[in-house]
Records
---
Amino acid sequence: MQVEYFQVSNTGESRQRSRVYRCEGIVIRRRDFGEADRLVTVLTDDHGKVRALAKGSRRTKSRLGGHLEPYARVRLMLARGRNLDIITSAQVLEPMTHLRREERSILYASHWSEIADQLMAESEQNRFGYGVLVRALTSLELGRDPVITSRICEWEFLAASGFQPELFQCTGCGRQIEPGGNGMHIEAGGVVCPQCHALDPLSRAISNDALRVLRAIGRGDGGLLYDRQLNDDLLKEIEQLLIGYLRSVIERDLQAWQILSSLEDGTTWGTPGH
């Protein structure tokens, strides 16, 4: 990547060099900072997770304001600062406007962004992790089943961060996992055989179908699940396994998922504010 330099003045101090870099990213979080600025968190293609200051972006005439909407895919130019990098320009590549029109879609996008914020390291390139979020948001934008998309996204973020569960060998004794009577032991890091499952109250049963679906996602065949009729009980089982695993890894609750799961049960969805 080519590095450029430009001169800046710092309140009368001697002129000095600041590094400038460009990247592509997804806005996963932002909050107000000071009177007119925003602190923006972006998951990028080449620099991992980046927290940067968008100066003056809350002003109505700001050049940056409309280009840093949540979940948008953007191209940025940033200057490295002493404490925070500074966003100097932004261009929207994919606005993701459709997903922001419905509360349900917003919550799914927020859920995935929260996982990315917790699992992706700052300033460490992780193109696979970036691709996970791009694919998930694009699927949501195109109207694909968000439940299937979410299970794929959750697994792939675990894989991108090195925390994917072991599905082929017992994490208790090392035996090869065969169909029938197995358990998922979150603290041990994956599936346990029937013998280890029976001996450990912390492991929970995992059905053969759930194990097959997780293995399909793990080998990159998750896209095939959109064309299959997976029953609600199976989808709920897989959700509980993955969410439980994620909560154990990040050692905290997933706030967006808590809201999403409470609203999924029998609630009529509408546009935000309705």
Note: Strands lie at 4-8, 16-33, 37-44, 49-54, 73-79, 85-94, 183-185, 190-192, 204-205.
---
Amino acid sequence: MSSEVTVYSFKAALYSLDESSHEWLLSDTNDDPVAQYYVFMDNADVPKFRMVGWVEDSGDVVLNNALTMHCIWLPVNEYFVQFTTPDDITVGLSFADLEQAQEASTIVLRILQNLVNVATSESNNVPREYSEGGEVDALSKTTSELKEVTT
């Protein structure tokens, strides 16, 4: 049974990066370049995230990638973001709405930063911290913060 939930959604046009010319090309899927994107979280002990985008009219999936600490979310300008997947595939996302562009960047960047923090804590074998209530696992604390980002 999956415990995956939608934590954020937005609309954007998808662009691909032409490797030879280094130009952004609009990915026109069935005459509709705008897709709906969803950020999903698998609500496990250590949350896992993925981003899926599809064209609502046709159901064509245009993006389906895990969000990991190896992803890069780089705002190029107020309306355009360069996103590099864990598989080193780079796409562009163009927002029509400035507020949604800023909100999407804030949320995705916080998720990615928290994933880095969790991975760093795990690799450093973070010692347990102590608080008034007793022992507090720093990794659990970071994981809780990660879950809070999306609520």
Note: Residues 98-123 form the longest helix (26 residues).
---
Amino acid sequence: MSMSSILGSALSGLQAAQLGMRSASNNVANVNTPGYARSEIQQIARSSGGQGAGVEVTGISRVVDEFLVAASIRGSSDLGRAELVSEFLDRIQSQFGSTDEETSLFGRINQAFAGLAQAAADPTESVSRLTALSNLEEVFDEATRLSSEIRSMRNETDRRVQSTVERVNEIVAEFSTINGEMRALTANAMDTTGSENRQAELIDELSTYLDIRVEAQPDGRVFIKTQNGVSLLDNEQVKLDYVPAGTGAYGVEYGAITAQVSSSGARIDIGANIKSGELRGLMDLRDKHLPQIADELAELTSGVADALNAAHNDASAYPAPNALEGRNTGLIGSDVLRGSGEATIAITAGDGTLVDQIDLVFNAAGFTVNGTPGNSMNDLAALISAASPDVTATFANGELSLTASAGNGVATMQNEANPSSLGGRGLAHYFGLNDLVDSRRPGFFDTALTGTSAHGLAPGGELGFSIFAADGRKVQSITVPVAGASVNDMIAALNNPASGLGQYGTYAMDANGKLSFTPTAGYKNFNVSLASDTTQRGTTGLAFSQLFGVGDAARMARAETFEVSADIRSNTSLLAMAKLDIDGATVPGDLVLSAGDSRGGQALQGAVTASRTFNRAGSLTGGVSSVEEYAARLAGDVGSRAAVAERSLDSASAIQAATDQKRSDVEGVNMDEELARMTMYQQAYNASARLMQAAKEMTDTLLNMV
């Protein structure tokens, strides 16, 4: 071996040891750096002409296990989603509280009905009536607060979707910059571990926001796609776009997370391709969990109000009020009023004696008032007014009102043997003549209309629908204009498979005049959402969707519309604690109302346990239940969602921790190992230096011999 070969080998050894020392020292310096993967030098024996020629460092590489990295990315996405869902559902559960908390909605319902029981025990005691009404108002105030909180949380999730999308764009943009650096470093065979570590940090962060897969390229670049293959970064960066709605209102249509994927300007819905991560969690909360809970809350709140109104409308205050003013039913004067059963309107004196009575009998063709037939709403008001000089009935803007003559009062009662039924409710209950709980919009959607009823919608109005696939993609927008003259005509327009919703499902009306939607085969998991409604029925001010409960806004916003009647709150003697005593033998002058009668109060107290029909709402199936039972089901559903989310979080955390530990075992810096490597490289460096010294001495000896 020549002197030059010895020097070359020694020099290569010095260089290799120096690089090894640098690698080991960098590892030690980053022992506590999150996401840092240790680096090692790659070296091979160098030869020349078949003889050894020292050592060659072929590169410095990060120590990683690609399979563990992929598992960690998936785990990070699942954990990000689980953390968000658990956080919000835990917050909403804490807002609802438990059934045994006095300040929770459920506790307030219990207190309200307990207060009614106390008032019924002594119907003449004004303090107990005032307390009962105050407790009732707290129920509806709490429902309003909870609904407002849900809307606020929906708005919060929507804003966080926007901020997360912005951060994703920032990360992908930085990736694009690093890709350019990596390609240049790789082409020049330079150390890329610093850039690779930054890539790893960004991948770890990005994977918490959405589910991704990473594809390393031979030139050092990294391409990023969603798990199902939609590219976020390849040769070009894909920028995500999202415009928040700026509101959590029910019925609002949230935009899609889109991206331009070609030079032609074509855009795709990226949101539908996001299956995990914080973005998926936020969208699931905004579009699924929170609206479902809001729907259930609205159904409970309307159930409480309707149960109380059912009892209150079949009772009377003592003395009876001079006037009964009904709710906006959405009916118009020409509507034919069909039903069954019998009811009585009584005009009473201030001492509770009967002044006059009017008997109403309903049938499939219309009704009779004291035997005189009629069928329209205009007929009903006119015939009631004509039946007695002591009462005047008016019907305008969907509202029926009864006013007794001066000094007298008016009350109603159901026939016990054959109670009246209009859309499944008694006469006074349907019209809301003596409602204890008022609402600014329909609290129930049993309209008492039939398919042959005139729809009464002004020409030019239209309903707009958005159709969403099971994965959240918006697949179609459909506009259905007002058509024909009857409700059946309007239903046919909605169900038209070409111009309406018939491809996705059909509407049908039941015997009580309630519309229901049934998805067609293959579209069960599609969402048909009402986007707009410019219709109005006559002079009622009510749109088609509000009257029939079409769309989220009509159903869910009910939780915020109820309040105890202002008239009753200001005059507690109007609380209906008594009931009329009228039978076939009753004649004017007989006592039909008494001050000590508590039967009306007892009926109000019993409304909490009385069976009634609840509609399907959120994840709760419909059916016959009591207010008490349905409240327990709602509490159970909210608690169950939070518990399931917590278990999912625990599971995702455990999986991520195990994956991170295994990844750390491979990638992490072990101080003992690094110190041993430093010692080894130090010794190698010293040995190479001694070899160079020996070569120098040999060279000097040769030179001295000349």
Note: Residues 68-79+161-291 form one domain.
---
Amino acid sequence: MKYLTDSFSMKMFDNRTYKISTKKIKKSKLMANTKDAVTSIGSFKIAKMLRKQVGRKDIKLESGDEIYVITSRFGRNKSSYKKENTYRYQVFSIL
């Protein structure tokens, strides 16, 4: 299964041991590879940029799955670091 999310969590795994490979990718690859992905996005800003609906879904990852993750580098509310429109794109392959 293929997933697209703005939030990656260890809660997405059952109580098993998995091997995971991760790779930093470009936005164009994320867009091309997630057209048919199950989407779970909570950020209105990220959803608008990707032209996807906002809405969280529970994701349970299994061997063979790929999860494409987009996260912002805006910093936290109480941080002095604010760099707008900077995102990190990654794909995690569950082996």
Note: Residues 2-94 form a domain with the Rossmann fold fold (CATH 3.40.50.11170).
